[in-house]
Amino acid sequence: MKVEKGFYKHVALLTFPIVIQNVLDSAVNMADVIMLNYVGQSSISAVSLATQITSLFFWFLFGTGTGMTMMGSQYWGKGNTDAINRSLGIAIKYTLFISGFSAFLCLVFPTLLMRIYTPDQQLIELGSVYLRLFAPGIIAWGISYTFLAGLRSTGRVAICTMTETITLILNVLLNALFIFVLDMGAAGVAVATAIARIIEMIICIFISLRSSDIKIRIKYIFKSNSVLDKDFRGMCFPAIANDFVWGLAFSMFSVILGHRSSDAVAANAIVTVVRNLGCVFSYGIAGSTGIILGQMLGAGKQQEAIVASRILLILAVLAGAFGGFIIFCLTPFISSGANLTETAHEYLLFMLHVNCFYIMGTSINTPLIAGTFRAGGNSRFGLLVDGITMWCWAVPAGFIAAFALKLDIKIVYLVLCTDEFVKLPTVFKYFFSNKWAKNITRENSELEYIEQKEK
After folding, report:
1. CA 130/CA 273 separation, integer angstroms
2. Are 187 and 129 in contact (CB under 8 A)?
3. Nearest Cα to Cα of residue 366 among 451, 276, 432
4. Rounded CA gap, 293 and 314, in Å?
5. Distance (Å, rounded) from C-alpha 396 to C-alpha 365?
6. In sequence order, what E strands does 271-370 have?
7. How many structural domains compose the chain?
8. What is the Rg, in whole angstroms, of the alpha carbon atoms belonging to the chain?
């Protein structure tokens, strides 16, 4: 398979900043767990369940960011920056609605939200405090994430990584201050995260003001091109639905574990952080895949994009194998340092060993579904395959195993970890059909005509 000269350098320049950002993100989450480890197992469990709730907002946000990346990367390949700015305005409009609604729920109904995940009153109280205090940070997080998605679509991943690095380091420092100095426990984590997200938004606004091309324009938020808006909804809403359906199903895994064992919740909180660390290279490949293939397709280079997609798939497989090796190497250190009960410690070891293999499925599916297919504007396929896999197989099978058959929690967890492998055959079939390789951009003359018509 031959590609253009400089292809691998381009992949590396896009992938490694994303990898660094993901490593730092995982490191911050790990730091939270380590710091809360000194507070107690209940704080770890409560924050873990509360972040499951905020992660549902993130999956909405990720879908909006994906829509921005799909349109932004292709229009960047076409050379139309005005269309990118208009798409960014549309994306922020929807983000403000989603983030505002999410913040309202966390402020007004935190106890009700926590009761969905656990019957443990202590965890409910701790988690409710976390949700209330973090709520203001949700809106700031939405704005900054969407803007950075727009920048990434143009290939400017370095400045995005720098911004997120500053945010994450600040988050860790504030966590340490509020947990160890001010003795705020789980509440301190929420306040620190909210402050860090607000500062991140301020940095993004500053970058936008200084940028010569990619900007947040208020007028595009309130008045957008109807054709671009329709295109954005057509690609973004299935992506939002896909990520929310997947995220909600994954969140149901925590519901299942939470109603069976608080020890399993504590163990899973640690495992989730370690698994995310193992997936950093895969997520990096996924991010660069969407940008590279999107720019190729927007420039009309369909065959080049197909060839590049095969190489990127091979890199994704290698990234998955390396990620599994990372988890295997970290297992002894994580196990020995965890301040858990004997039962929770037993669950922790088992879950870590399972994830040495489980992340291979994630490392293949994520770059294909969220990277390759969405680069061509197809977010509906992911919605269909994830919806069927998660809600017709993984979640029902998990509930049956946990509550109908009352199987051991280890077996339940193993059943929950089959989702990625069940959908692999369907994903591969669609990938090799090449039906995803489409140019989704509009001609400048069409956009200008619509603009004049709507004035």
Report:
1. 19
2. yes
3. 276
4. 15
5. 21
6. none
7. 1
8. 21
Residue 423 within any structural domain of the chain: yes
- Give 155's DSSP letter: T
Task: Return the structure tokens found at 101.
Answer: 């609604």
Report which of 57, 55, 134, 136 is spatially closest to residue 95, judged by C-alpha positions.
57
Give the whole-angstrom CA distance, residue 359 versus residue 347: 18
- Asked whether residue 446 is assigned to any structural domain, the reply reads no
Check whether 12 has a pLDDT greater than 60: yes
For 186, residues 6+ apart whose C-beta sits below 8 A from its C-beta are 36, 39, 43, 46, 47, 50, 126, 127, 129, 130
Per-residue tokens: 280: 């950093």
Rounded to two decimals, the pTM is 0.75
Q: Examine the pLDDT at 220 and tell me if it is beyond 60.
A: yes
Residue 374 to residue 149: CA distance in whole angstroms: 14
Residue 349 has pLDDT above 90, yes or no: yes
Tokens standing for residue 352? 């870590």
Average pLDDT over residues 38-44: 70
Single-letter residue type at 12: A
> What percentage of residues in the chain have a pLDDT greater than 70?
91
The string of DSSP letters for 65-127 reads: HHHHHHHHHHHHHHT-HHHHHHHHHHHHHHHHHHHHHHHHHHHH-HHHHHHHH---HHHHHHH
Q: What is the DSSP string of 252-266?
A: HHHHHHHHH-HHHHH
What phi-psi label fits residue 183: left (phi over 0), alpha (psi between -120 and 50 degrees) or beta? left
Q: Tokens standing for 245?
A: 């359906």
Q: Which residues does 421 contact at the CB level (< 8 Å), separation at least 6?
A: 361
pLDDT at 445 over 60: no
CA atoms of 182 and 159, how far apart (whole Å): 33
pLDDT tens readout for residues 239-291: 888 877 887 888 788 788 888 887 888 888 888 888 988 888 888 898 889 88
pLDDT digit string, tens, across residues 70-117: 888 888 888 888 888 888 898 899 889 888 998 999 999 989 888 887
In a domain, 5, yes or no: no
Range of the domain at 372: 13-439
Alpha-carbon span 323 to 314, nearest angstrom: 14
Tell whether 450 is covered by a domain.
no
Which of 113-117, 367-371, 399-403 has the least mean pLDDT?
A: 113-117
Which DSSP helix (H) or strand (E) runs through 16? helix 7-37
Answer whether 359's CB lies under 8 Å from 323's CB.
yes
